[in-house]
């Protein structure tokens, strides 16, 4: 099967009057010379080589499976998000891509994200929704592994649980207004881990089958992808009262292989497979 056989699967498209929201949009839209920080970067939340004109700083408390590749436009620092050594207002764009669910000191991390973002700058946050099946499954798998492997001292990865109202209030306390939002379904791409990869195909096939035959969608509303605008000094006082509602973006599916977002408009009856418009891999 080729991408030509699924013309009804496309990448999300931004309207001209919409602010960038998704990670690839934000990086593409950042002007040359923009200062961008990848908070909790791991090996890199995106391919830093795509935009050599940006001044990128990546930091994390550890770097499995290794730090981002070094380059002239990239600086890498070992730091804890709850207490970074970075300067106040140092960044035009702050990226925090599926990190906050793992931290223990949520408010301290929130404070640092707000502090290092310049007034008028953008903060991108992606986190799982606690009530979603995907996050519940991930946490169950963590507890199960802890008991089954008798690693009773092992830290559970998802320390925090989020809903939308809590997130909006959390960042509003530090002068950050929600600008754009997408409720993103689960792709179960976390199962690409070698330990769970053999289960991923049969599991996601079963989830898709259940949706087709019963309408029960276990992948729905699994994550929040959000951008916040940090108030300038003069605008902070009236920000909450005068803020426009956030722009809502639509995502219908997430690729189980690459984790990228797609919008599908399948014919009826819905085919059993679609091809990711990003990586070309089949999905149920």
From TrEMBL:
Signal peptide: none annotated. Keywords: Methyltransferase, S-adenosyl-L-methionine, Transferase. GO terms for molecular function: methyltransferase activity. It comes from the Bacteria. One of its GO terms (biological process) is methylation. Pfam families: Methyltransf_23. SUPFAM superfamilies: S-adenosyl-L-methionine-dependent methyltransferases. This is Methyltransferase domain-containing protein. The lineage of its organism: Bacteria, Candidatus Eiseniibacteriota.
């Amino acid at each position: 099967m080729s991408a030509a056989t699924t013309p009804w699967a496309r990448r999300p498209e931004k309207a001209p009057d919409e602010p960038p929201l998704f990670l690839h949009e934000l990086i593409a839209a950042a002007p040359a010379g923009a200062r961008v920080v990848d908070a909790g970067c791991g090996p890199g939340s995106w391919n830093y080589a795509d935009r050599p004109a940006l001044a990128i700083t990546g930091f994390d408390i550890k770097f499995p499976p290794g730090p981002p590749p070094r380059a002239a436009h990239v600086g890498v620092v070992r730091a804890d998000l709850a207490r970074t050594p970075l300067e106040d207002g140092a960044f035009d764009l702050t990226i925090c891509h599926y990190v906050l669910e793992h931290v223990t000191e949520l408010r301290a991390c929130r404070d640092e994200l707000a502090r290092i973002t310049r007034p008028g700058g953008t903060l991108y946050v992606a986190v799982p929704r606690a009530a979603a099946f995907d996050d519940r499954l991930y946490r169950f798998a963590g507890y199960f592994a802890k008991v089954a492997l008798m690693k009773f001292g092992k830290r559970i990865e998802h320390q925090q649980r989020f809903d939308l109202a809590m997130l909006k209030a959390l960042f509003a306390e530090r002068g950050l207004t929600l600008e754009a939002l997408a409720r993103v379904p689960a792709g179960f791409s976390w199962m690409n881990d070698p330990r769970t990869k053999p289960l991923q195909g049969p599991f996601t096939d079963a989830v898709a089958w259940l949706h087709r035959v019963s309408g029960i969608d276990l992948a729905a509303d699994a994550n929040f992808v959000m951008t916040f605008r940090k108030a300038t000094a003069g605008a902070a006082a009236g920000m909450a009262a005068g803020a426009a509602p956030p722009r809502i973006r639509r995502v219908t599916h997430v690729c189980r292989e690459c984790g990228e977002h797609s919008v599908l408009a399948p014919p009826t009856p819905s085919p059993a497979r679609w091809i990711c418009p990003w990586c070309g891999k089949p999905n149920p």
